[in-house]
Amino acid sequence: MTSPTSVRTSVSSSLAKIRQSDNSIQAFEEVFADDAVARAELLDGGDPASGTEPLRGMTLGVKDIFELSGRSPGNGNRTVFGMLSRDMPEDDAALIRILRGAGAVITGMTRSTELCWYQPTLTRNPHDLNCTPGGSSSGSAAAVAADMVTAAIGSQTNGSVVRPASYCGLFAYKAGYDRLDLTGMTRISDSFDHTGFFARDAATVTRLAEVAGDLQVPQQSSSGYRLGVVDTQDLVDVDDEVVETFIAYVGQLREAGHEVEPVRLPEVLAPETFDAYYGVLAPELYQLHRSLLAPDLIDKLGPKTVEILQRGRDTTATQQREAEKAVAELRTRVDGYFDRFDALILPAATSPAPRTLTHTGSPALSTLSSMAGVPITVVPAGLGRSGLPVGIQIWGRLGADETVLALLVALPSAYVAPQ
């Protein structure tokens, strides 16, 4: 916890790092320097005896899909969303309001891909500026990895927290479905939207989750948990480098005394999983954002955004119902794994960060879990042989967010800062 008299110092340091680094990384859509300093002075000027806010002085980046008082989100395309007729928010999004109330200081809005989809933003990966940081929470992950803020807020509809955490070598938490209040966040899919946090250490992620979700993370040893390690037979289309790192990580678990058992998870990369996901996601996204296909807006959108909107438009009601049934069946199958295990362990992404800025990499290892709504944490497992970070994800049963957060702290990790 930042001491009551050091908030201005913490905020000034964050703003200095943004000025120093963000021209090359492009993590921020907008920086609130004056507001952040004013907030710091307000916190520093309070009664020292009452300085017990759990997040006092923590600098936060916020993905630009959340409402702030007097500021509508840009959603990765401020030109288009600025053209829509919207009332200016009178209050912060629910999650932002909770975190500010706990003493956090918002230093700026971080860049998102367009409408949280696959049209990339300008952001670069601090580990290699020629690599994507992942998406859609590109700016949030990059800002934390570059040490511009203590932590950042992201969102996930497919792999938008888990994948950037892996690519940028961070600790992260993707809340279970409906565990955190999404009021005031731009919605992409009522069925699959989640939010979460990035940080450079597990304790910060856990503290944010406890405050945001009113959680109590147990301080017990991880030795009491039953850990299912996904069999590499099911990791088809996953890079050899990632599989090697994953196998080495499982070895670390065993060496540390954790009881692990291999488990087959054939659904994780099965075609039926992706068919079900997109069969629900596309029409839900279209139903929420059909106005974007208006003639005066469509040519201002990226082709990947237009493609998913049109796919949703063209999905029939019968096709959507069939996909919803398949999603329900897959959710039941995923839940069944937790009759045997407290958590499932698998790689967080199919590859290290691709050396490209034209796409944000594959979210394939997150599709099943986002569809199931299960809580997830991500631990960095160090660098692969390419010299880029590789992450490990921990799935828990729906409703068991405290379990994956406890494991985030207890299991081995290897954070490596960008050089």
TrEMBL record:
Entry coiled-coil feature ranges: none
Residue intervals of the Amidase domain: 11-405
UniProt superkingdom: Bacteria
Any one Gene Ontology molecular-function term assigned to this protein's record: catalytic activity
InterPro entries: Amidase, Amidase_dom, AS_sf
Protein name: Amidase domain-containing protein
Species assigned in the record: Mycobacterium sherrisii
High-level lineage: Bacteria, Bacillati, Actinomycetota, Actinomycetes, Mycobacteriales
